[in-house]
Design brief:
- The structure is a homodimer.
- Chain A is mainly alpha-helical.
- Chain A folds into two domains: about 60 residues, Orthogonal Bundle (Arc Repressor Mutant, subunit A), CATH 1.10.10; about 140 residues, GntR ligand-binding domain-like (Four Helix Bundle (Hemerythrin (Met), subunit A), Up-down Bundle).
- Helix content of chain A is about 65%, strand content about 5%.
- In chain A, helix 4 packs parallel to helix 8 and helix 8 runs antiparallel to helix 9.
- The two termini of chain A are about 40 Å apart.
- The structure holds a DNA duplex.
Chain lengths: ~230, ~230
DNA sequence: GCTTGACAACTACCATACCAGTTGCCAGAC
DNA sequence: GTCTGGCAACTGGTATGGTAGTTGTCAAGC
């Protein structure tokens, strides 16, 4: 049941990827949830094959864990993994913003100001997040590194999963301050300032992550012991 | 025919991914080659399903282009795309080597020296490349960024495809000099020197790329026109 | 009560069959 | 000779059936 409207022109597998990805990132499917090709297929009124392909894709993105002949589960959030993903994102966007600081001209500076203004005026969280993405994307595409943004976007999924857990106490003011600092560095044509602002911005999650993990430990992987599950296989 | 030994314990789709990826990266399947799920499946004596999954995975990696109801082809090499991939790799490895320069101790310095020595003594191209990878991987994993190396590894596929075209005039001496400079910066505990050496190393492909593209233009995408194929759909 | 082994109920993986869309060829009309 | 329409031969996408492997349960034996 609950055929969540799968009737676009696009192939079914693609639609399933988007559908399931949203459910996982937005926390509708929580870490630990067990999925099954057959069940999902039956619920959505499609065959198991497209579901399987969606599972594989999401497993590649780190949003699912396929355990053959056992089950497919939404993995618990691994704090060390999140920090590693964040590291990669910071490295990429630091270089991007340096380029922007040296290459952007008046036209791009204007667009940056418009995005900041739109984000200030956003009244819903969804809109705020959309403008957030727009800023980062524009920086990348503006310096001709659209591919890099694609990489960041796939990494970001795992970070967004954490972000959606804290959507209540979403620090809008703090994020806006960070964005203003980044844009200021770019407009000033100062790569060092822009880079530092970007790194500080992306480091913010490190402040929140430990307390988030403590407040809802059932969603996080224990990493107290030396390593993972004591699988005696 | 030609069942290229697919009898490991691993799942068939995984084996197919590795098999096809090697054929593409190593230039056995050249840009422009047209593949077919059915044909590959018949040739290897398996069903179309695992072949299909391998196609999807390789398409994600940029090594195949699936055109529904038309064909699946090995894409021509896009010079701008290669440069964008290279940009991302440089950003990631620059930050990694900075960490290595500040964190590595005597034990890691010894391992770096051993890898350099092994690469100096390599007599086959394959061995040389293997030691090359080992150095980069060790830098990443040594600073606790194994995930970042995974990202680089998937990016590298598209760069390796170019590298294998030039395997004849492979600049071993130049690469070794670069590696020595990187290691020197790390051992000296000088992040700036290490970073600059790494960036210079990874920038080397930019010197060769234009002339490679000119010498074998049939393997490269024309990017003279404003944009891609004039698909009038 | 506790352990153990067989069975039932899952799982993901693979094979096969069918479907819809695209392409290219070729015959017929002009 | 050129153009056009339709059919045949592909393509990848989807549906379904069957198989091997894992897990949990429950009854039989100690």
């Amino acid at each position: 049941m609950a055929i969540s409207r799968l009737d676009d022109g696009k192939p079914i597998n693609t639609q399933l990827i988007v559908l399931l990805r949203n459910r996982i990132v937005q926390g509708e499917l929580l870490p630990g949830a067990k999925l099954s090709e057959a069940k999902i297929a039956a619920d959505l009124g499609v065959s198991r094959q497209p579901v399987r392909e969606a599972f594989i894709k999401l497993a590649d993105e780190g949003l699912l864990e396929i355990r053959p002949q056992r089950a497919t589960v939404v993995p618990k959030i691994s704090v060390p993994r999140v920090m590693e993903v964040r590291f990669v994102r910071e490295a990429i966007e630091a270089d991007i913003v340096r380029l922007a600081a040296t290459r952007f001209g008046r036209a791009e500076h204007g667009e940056l100001a418009r995005i900041i203004a739109a984000q200030e005026g956003a009244d819903s969280v969804e809109e705020f997040i959309a403008e957030d993405d727009r800023l980062h994307r524009f920086l990348a595409e503006g310096v001709g590194q659209g591919y890099a943004w694609g990489v960041v976007e796939s990494l970001k999924l795992q970070l967004d999963r954490v972000r959606f857990l804290t959507v209540r106490q979403f620090p809008k003011q703090s994020i806006l301050d960070h964005h203003r600092a980044i844009v200021a560095g770019v407009v000033a044509g100062n790569p060092d300032r822009a880079e530092q602002a970007m790194r500080a911005h992306l480091n913010a999650i490190n402040d929140d992550l430990p307390e988030i993990a403590k407040s809802m430990p059932e969603l996080f992987e224990d990493h107290v012991g030396a390593g993972g599950q004591p699988d005696l296989a």
